Amino acid sequence: MFSSTLVFALCFFSAVAAAPSSVSSLPGCSGLGANASNTLASFTLAALNTSLPNANSTGAPLVLGQAGAIDGATFEVLSTWATFPYNDWPTLSLVNGGLYGNSSYGNQAVSSGATNGTTVGFITTTPTPTPSQVFCIVPNKNSSGLPLLALNGHTDEFSLCSNGKGYQNNVAYNASGKSYYYDYTTCYPVVLQVVGTQ
Ligand SMILES: *[C@@H]1O[C@H](CO)[C@@H](O)[C@H](O)[C@H]1NC(C)=O
Ligand SMILES: *[C@@H]1O[C@H](CO)[C@@H](O)[C@H](O)[C@H]1NC(C)=O
Ligand SMILES: *[C@@H]1O[C@H](CO)[C@@H](O)[C@H](O)[C@H]1NC(C)=O
Ligand SMILES: *[C@@H]1O[C@H](CO)[C@@H](O)[C@H](O)[C@H]1NC(C)=O
Ligand SMILES: *[C@@H]1O[C@H](CO)[C@@H](O)[C@H](O)[C@H]1NC(C)=O
Ligand SMILES: *[C@@H]1O[C@H](CO)[C@@H](O)[C@H](O)[C@H]1NC(C)=O
Ligand SMILES: *[C@@H]1O[C@H](CO)[C@@H](O)[C@H](O)[C@H]1NC(C)=O
Hints:
single chain; 198 residues; mainly beta; Trefoil (Acidic Fibroblast Growth Factor, subunit A); 7-stranded antiparallel barrel; 1 helix; 9% helix; 39% strand; binds 2-acetamido-2-deoxy-beta-D-glucopyranose; signal
């Protein structure tokens, strides 16, 4: 009797605590609070381990790494610069919740976001496709940290995983078990810090 009342009370309070203090209706930022933003020009991303020691408080720089090609289009993923030492899209831009890689050659990469268990994907083709409006930038709860990128309303579903061929570490969303995209045994959780906002 007492314990079931306690369980009910705990559930009730955690539901209240999880409710955002103010609801954003911006595309990509739904439910992420009043200070969430879905538009920002010219930034980069860095992956910060959430469970393992980091080399520094910014994290490992990310770039758009190769993920194959078909006739007329190339595919990209978010990769660590350390494992993909090229940087053809030196800055990213967030426009109404859509994420773009901006290149100096004018060929923009556009992100389709990610579904559960896949890598965060981009495509570069002509004409430039419409992006998925699924990204948002939110303040870091740790006030000495940088703002965080959210995807599908979550900042805490990203991992860095080897592509399974051993040479490129890519960002996965809600990584799980068997995947064509990565070797799950190599994954560790990260947050994606937004660099270049101040
Ligand atoms: C938004 O930012 C302002 C100014 O820093 C702060 O006072 C407020 O509490 C923040 N609101 C939310 C919902 O985080
Ligand atoms: C907050 O962020 C700073 C800078 O990244 C880091 O040194 C510190 O350990 C973090 N604190 C917590 C409680 O995560
Ligand atoms: C942080 O460490 C990474 C290696 O983990 C390095 O590539 C990056 O340049 C460092 N950033 C800063 C600001 O020192
Ligand atoms: C995360 O921590 C592991 C183990 O310390 C290290 O090998 C890796 O480079 C770190 N990655 C980042 C993004 O800091
Ligand atoms: C990057 O691309 C977006 C989308 O087309 C555009 O709005 C933005 O101005 C570009 N930013 C830069 C720095 O070229
Ligand atoms: C991930 O799975 C959950 C549970 O099935 C679902 O609610 C959610 O929409 C899925 N996310 C994506 C991006 O497909
Ligand atoms: C992550 O994916 C699993 C299925 O693998 C799903 O049950 C879960 O709800 C997903 N989480 C989120 C936050 O979408």
